[in-house]
TrEMBL record:
The gene is rfbB. It catalyses: dTDP-alpha-D-glucose = dTDP-4-dehydro-6-deoxy-alpha-D-glucose + H2O. One of its GO terms (molecular function) is dTDP-glucose 4,6-dehydratase activity. Transmembrane segments: none annotated. This is dTDP-glucose 4,6-dehydratase. The keyword Aminoacyl-tRNA synthetase does not apply. GO terms for biological process: nucleotide-sugar metabolic process. Its cofactor is NAD(+). Belongs to the NAD(P)-dependent epimerase/dehydratase family. dTDP-glucose dehydratase subfamily. SUPFAM superfamilies: NAD(P)-binding Rossmann-fold domains. The keyword Lyase applies. Keywords: Lyase, NAD. It comes from Lampropedia aestuarii.
Length: 351
């Protein structure tokens, strides 16, 4: 059995669904259900004896100790976080609480639990910390992609809080010997992505006839990875990663934001043309830039490939088509998330 924190969010839910489908080992999901957590993301596992959902906060040390003692996981995969850069700029407090204090509490609870395990279980235990390429800061246009050796230079409250959590994880390995692994991944996209982030925001705004906001000149570069490929990378690191090491996960897919948005518009023109015959790109609107906006991220994932034999399965073309189609097929999910109605749905379903 494994414990997954943040398993009702975008990547966590994809991870739990794929894990149950492909590995089949039971999962306990711990999630606070913030605005970003949605039990509907895991609805397919309702009634499946291999999945247990617990609503709770990773800053609650007593709860963590109790659930580790009760469920005895062989690994913890830690996704729970405040994840949106724009929100961190407007209100950093929750990012410090969850990403820094929460990770600290989880490490302490894991250490106490791990210390109490018998030899074999103790040797097999893993704490996998899911982090981001944003901890490395911004790359100059011609600079090589981030390797695992790149210096930490976080620029936003979000990335600073994630960098702090990475350092805590590292210290718990070096000081206490806790068997940790850390992954730093580039921008994910795919099903279940909350529509505050660029790709789902653009798809849903386009379909709703709303403006498609591009920050600044739209030439900022992100390195996009289909979420299922991130999940397969995490499974591989959990299986074969070296303790105390970090692994950069990415899809070799650097693209400027404006080109991403134009690609989505073109796909929507093909799959769901506007009634007035105009292209969705007419909805593109340039707006004020994000403060401290990092210009470029790019991941060098060669360690994942050379040491662990991992490669992404999707190209950007195949992944973005699947993603746009998923949003077209799941209008009810979008409506629930946008209206906040899923909270009522949760109360009705799980009261
Ligand atoms: P998300 O915001 O969609 O989901 C986060 C989940 O964590 C939500 O279900 C939320 O309810 C839960 N959560 C928040 N605070 C909590 C707390 N105090 N206790 C318990 N649960 C809590 O985020 P995501 O995009 O799925 O990201 C998941 C992880 O992956 C994060 O650690 C993020 O930093 C990292 N990451 C994300 C990306 C990306 O592109 N989205 C890329 C690299 C790394
Ligand atoms: O790189 C990994 C990170 O990717 C993760 O650690 C974060 O959790 C995740 O949110 C993501 O951060 P970004 O800030 O890169 O993602 P976001 O989707 O918010 O923005 C992507 C790019 O698009 C960024 O350059 C800002 C820009 N943008 C974003 C929004 C929401 C726009 O131009 N307009 C928008 O409306």
């Amino acid at each position: 059995m494994i414990l997954v924190t943040g398993g009702a969010g975008f990547i966590g839910a994809n991870f739990v669904l794929d894990w149950i489908a492909q590995v089949g080992e039971p999962v306990v999901t711990l999630d606070k259900l913030t605005y970003a957590g949605n039990r509907a993301n895991l609805a397919a596992l309702e009634g499946d004896g291999r999945h247990t959902f617990l609503q709770g906060d990773i800053t609650d040390g007593a709860l963590l100790e109790q659930l580790l003692a009760q469920h005895q996981p062989r690994a913890i995969v830690h996704f729970a976080a405040e994840s949106h850069v724009d929100r961190s700029i407007h209100g950093p407090e929750d990012f410090i609480q969850t990403n820094v204090i929460g990770t600290f509490r989880l490490l302490e609870a894991a250490r106490s639990y791990w210390n109490g395990l018998q030899d074999q279980a103790k040797a097999a235990f893993r704490f996998l910390h899911v982090s981001t390429d944003e901890v490395y800061g911004s790359l100059a246009p011609e600079a090589p992609a981030f390797t695992e050796q790149h210096a930490y230079e976080p620029n936003s409250p979000y990335s600073a809080s994630k960098a702090a959590s990475d350092h805590l994880v590292r210290a718990w390995f070096h000081t206490y010997g806790l068997p940790v692994l850390t992954t730093n991944c580039s921008n994910n996209y795919g099903p279940l992505h909350f529509p505050e982030k660029l790709i789902p925001l653009v798809i849903t705004n386009a379909l709703a006839g709303k403006p498609l906001p591009i920050y600044g000149d739209g030439q900022q570069i992100r390195d996009w990875l289909f979420v299922k490929d991130h999940c397969s990378g995490i499974r591989r690191v959990l299986e074969a990663g070296q303790l105390g090491e970090t692994y950069n996960i990415g899809g070799h897919n650097e693209m400027a934001n404006i080109d991403i948005v134009k690609r989505i518009c073109a796909l929507l023109d093909e799959l769901r043309p506007r009634a007035d015959g105009q292209g969705y790109a007419t909805q593109i609107t340039f707006v004020k830039d994000r403060p401290g906006h990092d210009r470029r991220y790019a991941i060098d994932a060669s360690r994942m490939q050379n040491e662990l034999g991992w490669q992404p399965a999707e190209t950007f073309d195949s992944g973005i088509r699947k993603t746009v189609q998923w949003y077209l097929d799941n209008a009810a999910w979008v409506e629930n998330v946008q209206s906040g109605a899923y909270r009522d749905w949760v109360q009705k379903q799980y009261a």
